[in-house]
Amino acid sequence: MLSDRYGRKWPLVFNLILVSVLELGAGFTQTFHQFLAVRSLFGIGMGGVWGLATATALENLPVEARGIASGILQEGYAIGYLIAAVINLWLVPEVSAGWRSLFWTASGISLFAAFVRVLLPESEVFLRAKNSDGNKEKTAAAKTKIFIRETNTMLKKHWMLCIYAVVLMTGFNFLSHGTQDLYPTYLTATKGFSSHSATVATIIGNCGAIAGGVFGGWLSQHIGRRLTMIIHVFVIAAFIPLWILPSTFGPLSAGAFFLQFGVQGAWGVIPIHLAEMSPPAFRATFPGLAYQLGNMASSASAQIEATGGEHLRTTIVQKGKSVNVPDYASVQGIFIGAVAAFVILMILIGPEHLGSHFEKHKTAFEEGQESEINDNDPHVATLKRDNSQRSSEVDEKKSEEQV
C-alpha cells in the first residue's frame, strides 16, 4: 500500500534492508524461540518485496516484452533458491559457523540488492503522476485522503476478484511448496540418498525451474496467459511418475528437472497475469497481498505431506537391512496430482486481460483511479514516446530476425 501511495523505490529499498538485517540476526540466534521470533519478523520484510518488484519491473516495459520479463522476474526466486543450495552444498560444511553462514551470506546479497535499487530511478508511472499539473497543487494529506477513498471504492467493486486471486495463489503456492519444501527430506528419508546428493538434485531441479519460467513467460505473450499455465500444469502431471518412481539418482534428478520446469513454467506467467488482472492503480497491493495470503494458506504443505508419510509407509534396503520409512513418494504424487487438478480448474474459471495497458491508468492517489491518464499531460507524452520507441525497437529486431 505504501508503494501504491508514495512510489515504488523507497518502500522496496526499506524492505530489502529490513530483510538483510533480520537475515544477519538469524545467524546469531542461540535458541529455537529466538530463531522463530526473528523469522516471524523476517516475514514482514519478505512479504513486501514481491508485489513491489513485479509492479516496478512490468509497468516500465513495453507490452510486447512483459511476458518474457515476467518469467525472468519470477525466476529470480529459483535463482535465489539455487544460490542458497550451492552455498549450503559448498560453504556451510567447510566453515565452523555451519548453517549460520548461509544466513550471513544471504544478508549481504539482500543488502546489495537494496544498494542497486537505490541507484535506479523511481518508476516512470509515479514520476508522471507526481509531476502532473493537477497533483502538484495537492498536499500530501489530500493525496492520502484520495488514496483511502479510492481503496474503499476498489474493494467494493472488486471484492470477488480479490477472493479469486487469493484462491488462485493458494493453489499455485501449494504447487510450488508441495514440490520443494519436503523434497530434500523425501530423497534422504524415502530414497536413502545422502544430504549432498539431495542438494545436488535440488540444484538440478532449480535449473529446470529457471528454464521453465522464462519459457512460460515468453510463450504466454503469444498464446495467452491461461493457456500457457494450463499446458505447464499438464507437464507437471506428465512427469510425476518420473519424479517419484525411480530409485537411482539419474532418473530422479531428471524427474525433478522436468517437474520444476512445469511448476515454474506456470509460475513464470503469474507476475504479469496478476498485474493485468488487478485494479490498475493497485498493481503492488493486489498481486502482493494475493500472493502472500496464498503463501500463508499453503505454508502447511510440508506438514500435510509429513503427516501423510506417517500413515503411508514403505520398506527400503539401506546398508543391507530392510528399513521401514515414510512413503513420501506416494504422498507427494497424490498431493501434487490433486493440487494440479485444482489449479487447472481455477485457471479455467478466471479472467484474462492479455496485453492490458495498465500503465496508462491513474495512480491510487489520483481521483478516478480506473480512468486512463490525460493524453495532453507532457509527462504522459514522454512516457508514451518512450514506450513507442521501445516497441519500435522490438519490431525492428523481429524484422531483422525474420530477414
TrEMBL record:
It is found in: Membrane. Residues 365-403 are annotated as: Disordered. GO terms for cellular component: plasma membrane. The chain crosses the membrane at residues 12-30, 36-58, 70-90, 102-120, 159-178, 198-220, 227-245, 329-350. GO terms for biological process: plasma membrane lactate transport. Residues 383-403 have a biased composition (Basic and acidic residues). Residues 1-354 form the Major facilitator superfamily (MFS) profile domain. InterPro entries: MFS_dom, MFS_sugar_transport-like, MFS_trans_sf. It is a multi-pass membrane protein. It comes from the Eukaryota. One of its GO terms (molecular function) is secondary active monocarboxylate transmembrane transporter activity. Gene3D superfamilies: MFS general substrate transporter like domains. Keywords: Membrane, Transmembrane, Transmembrane helix. This is Major facilitator superfamily (MFS) profile domain-containing protein.
